[in-house]
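forwarding from the other thread:

> can someone predict this with flavin-adenine dinucleotide?

sure thing
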Amino acid sequence: MTQKKALVIGGGIAGMQASLDLADQGIKVYLVERNPSIGGNMAKLDKTFPTLDCAACIITPKLVDTGGHKNIELLTYSEVQNITGEAGAFKVKVLKKARFVDIDKCTGCAACTQVCVLKNKILDEHNEGMGKRGAAYIPFPQAVPLKATIDPEHCLFLTKGKCTMKCVEACGPGAIDHEQKPEEVTLAVGSIIVATGFKLEDPAKKPEYGYGVYDNVITSLQIERLLSPSGPTGGEVKRPSDGEHPKKVAFLQCVCSRDLNTNIYCSRYCCMQAIKEAILLKEHNPDVEVTIFYIDIRAFGKGYEELYNRAKDEFGVNFVKGRIAEIHEKDDKSLVTIGEDIVGGGVVESKVDLVVLSVGVAPVPLPEGIGIEIPVWRDNFYRAKNQYVDAVTTDIPGVFVAGCAESPKDIPDSVTQGSAAAMRASILLEEK
Amino acid sequence: MTEEELRVGVYVCHCGTNIAGVVDVDAVVEYAASLPNVVHATKNMYMCSLPAQSGIKEDIKKHSLNRVVVASCTPKMHEPTFRAAVQAGGLNPFLYEQANIREHCAWVHADQPERATEKAKDLVRMAVAKARLLSPLNPKKIAVIRSALVVGGGPAGLRSAADLASRGFEVSLIEKSHFLGGNAVRSASLPFTDQTPREAAAVLTDALEDEKNISVHTGYEAESLNGYLGNFTISLVKKPRFVKECSNCGRCIAVCPVETDNEFDYGLSMRKAIYMPYDSAYPNYPAIDMSVCKKCGECVNACAESAIDLEAEDEKLDLSVGAVVIATGAKNYTPKDGEFGWGKSDRVLSLPVLERVLDKTGPTKGRLKGKVENVVFIGCVGSRQKKTSEEEKVNEYCSRICCTESVKNAIHIKDRHPDAGVFYLFRDIRTYGRDEYLYREALEKGVVFIQFEGDVPPEVNVLKKGAKVVVSDVLSRESFEIPASHVVLATGFEPGADADKVLEVFKLNRSADGFFQEAHIKLRPLETSTEGVFIAGACQAPKNLVESIASGSAAAAKAAVPLSMGEVELDPAKAMVTEFCDGCAICIDPCLGKAITLVEYEKDGELKKTVEVNEALCKGCGVCMATCPKKGIDVRHFTLDQLQAMVDAALET
Ligand SMILES: Cc1cc2nc3c(=O)[nH]c(=O)nc-3n(C[C@H](O)[C@H](O)[C@H](O)COP(=O)(O)OP(=O)(O)OC[C@H]3O[C@@H](n4cnc5c(N)ncnc54)[C@H](O)[C@@H]3O)c2cc1C
Ligand SMILES: Cc1cc2nc3c(=O)[nH]c(=O)nc-3n(C[C@H](O)[C@H](O)[C@H](O)COP(=O)(O)OP(=O)(O)OC[C@H]3O[C@@H](n4cnc5c(N)ncnc54)[C@H](O)[C@@H]3O)c2cc1C
Ligand code: SF4
């Protein structure tokens, strides 16, 4: 008998949309997310192109709807371990990692995060390492579920066996449980949607840009965190080396994209991401000089060319066609970018306070050996069996793909594909 | 009934720095606390976060609140969120009011923080004044007809229809022309595959054939839509095909004496008055083009199946469905006369024409006319245009697929004519995502890419055979002259030819770029301002085939929600008739939803009149309330008393 239930792997915007569209049809959904909260990369963004509405404002309703839906069971901080069976009747083993917090008792009050002896000592991944957190942490204020997690890699008690354990003391409801064990659950589902999204490619693959070496070379996601009012600087853009407000900022496009040495494909959203971030910098301070070094500006989506034009005409963002060949750091930690200006001609050197790398996208495949292997395309992203007739069905019957797991894309296209995967998956579930 | 004591809770949101960066949130909280009946006032960094919502829930119990006001963003965004929180606290969700101090204060008055703060206080005072008069409301549920209408038989519409049918719903697919497939089947090839667009379309039409619960209506257009989500009635008109389903033996076509341009091939081939646009077109039997038919009757005589009726007339059909998917596509930009040599020579082609030319089964068997020496593509024709004057209407947008399509065809031409020069004159190469591999392939195969600046477009001087193309190259800062044997204009897309009618019938809006407007560009790209009507494919914005297909499935998912649930909830903010109505009927005409009818009734032996409101049709817009001279009709949740209280509060100082 077909299980009228679905599994969605990955709780980014694509996975959430897929879950909601299934759940709204009355289908039970298990949404497995390996991080403590759903939201994915979009939860890290400040504002979003092309309309510049704030990411938190538009993603929060989705987070809340997904978290509160009666047909969606969230399994956060969990990993899929094994998949057996076939379309209509999959058996899926999921490991619920130990949070060391009883989520039924935790109220999300964040008291533990305030008293953790490691508070402000651990690089915070939600802030892309631009801020710090403790071992007891809640990734961001709108997290769903709003529960604390204790990071087993850092917690002094869990790693060294001793700590004053202020968190336990501070926790009113007594939710903290350092003895908590991981739990394995087995789910029976009829179809599976893979929405594992993307990560930024490792910018260290382009050593000429000095990422990780020069303090003031940061990634596109890091500047989102600096721009964000809920970020580590409260929305003030300060350069990492000295906390000064940068007066000159350079964006480098196609870092690890359109590049024979790293990835050939274009990462699709980063031209618009840079245009957006440049505008936001200008909105923060119109006197900041912002230059975007690009190969081609790919403003192809609805409203994108219009925003590109505004960036040039209204906000005075500079666009220079050409790849930067190398970056050097000066004594005062400012940077000299050297590259070709294809339109203006010649090699241009400019001194800037901050360099933002518009780093390309890399796939986040499912762990190896979990029982299914979805064929990938040349670019290593999951592919649909025949994308020209069905954009989301993979070669494995019953398994669908959505969002950046299928290929790099922006939010509108991720959302659309999430809905499409929900549709194709629901047909299978309702068939028999 | 004893008046319960009013206990209002007010919550003011920082929205990060969105509000707090301009408005003095603490001052607003303090002010709110001083207002009559406000027993609790507080603030939060993000009111929409779960803890803040739980806070509302707990405060309702702790402070025995019976009204809640949140001062934050637009209610369009979070009214549902906060209503749910209020409900979770045990109150009726309509005992909630929102003051928009973000869009209406912080954003519009960013440069005047003090006055923005004062305005925020005013808005909070008004919201509290309304909150005092709110009453509990309970939404009605209405049944949904479990069938769908899909408008447009291109790839997006076909995908939507096939998905909804295989999900188990009755589906009617209407297509204006006599054949399915849309724009896609006119192109010759697809990137990265040997599969032709026609083969892809055939997979979809085969899927339709397999489904029992789908009816395909070609030649149909929608004339009107009535009703509401769950209960639409649609009137359709069919333009006759003049041919019934037959074995497509071809005898009629052979005998027809009338020849005319085959528009499917942009006039590159001829067809008869009775015709198939191409052999495998679906449905696979001919249609007659009455605009050229002479009614000589040759075909009727030749037909052994009596399938032809030259006197067939328009037919009408009414459908009742629960949801609608619009997938009426886009049209190709036609260059203006003389634009880059357009219309001056058969060696100046547009992209869609080139697709027909390169189709091996097409009118030229895949061959370009004449000797192929230098083929010059010119990018962004009809796209990325700049206004030269305020009034000028231009296509400012990028048409998204023309770069990839040009590069795809440049490769084909290079493959077939390795010795020919193939040039792409471009502004930016937008072979986004995976299509970058095509661009690489083109570079490797020797296609020459030359960039020009938008304000210095290439010049095309048409010659007897071919043209002289002059381009200012950005890279070398030199001007080149290319003797072109063929020029291909990479034409973009525009909203479909009859978009106006579709918009009017289905009550949709246009975006600034002219394409159909979605409810939210990022998170609700398939929904529209008409609940229950969804958009898919190129009618929303230019899209490639994969994206059109994805949005077809996605729109089907949206339609599947109400259809599978079988009922929908109505917003209770609807007009209601009061005891003061005397049936004067002034409100009936102005009502935008045609929701009001006049009724007669007997009271104390007397014949009286009043009006009745169809709540499913009523949009709660309040036009009736504004028209009525005697308070005979009122809109729930926006009653005259409530609005009066807000105005009074606004004028207080
Ligand atoms: C700097 C930057 C700025 C951007 N700005 C914009 C913008 O302004 N507008 C716009 O439209 N787009 C923008 N984008 C693109 C946008 O972020 C993506 O389109 C979107 O986030 C893709 O969503 P997704 O759900 O496919 O993937 P993701 O957001 O990556 O979500 C995938 C989820 O799956 C989880 N996951 C992965 N593997 C597993 C596993 N094995 N088991 C369980 N869970 C797993 C991940 O933890 C994650 O939560 C931007 C991107 C970046 C990097
Ligand atoms: C020349 C050309 C080449 C292309 N090449 C490629 C390519 O190489 N790769 C790729 O991925 N994509 C390509 N595309 C894009 C692809 O064809 C489109 O993405 C796709 O056709 C859009 O599908 P659609 O269903 O939204 O619209 P359409 O295909 O435009 O179909 C819309 C349908 O709706 C019908 N219709 C319109 N109005 C009404 C009405 N009022 N009532 C009923 N029916 C109506 C129309 O008759 C038509 O059949 C190409 C397009 C063109 C024009
Ligand atoms: S979107 Fe722009 S920056 Fe990103 S890879 Fe493509 S061309 Fe480069």
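Residues 411-431 of chain A form the longest helix (21 residues). thats all i got for now
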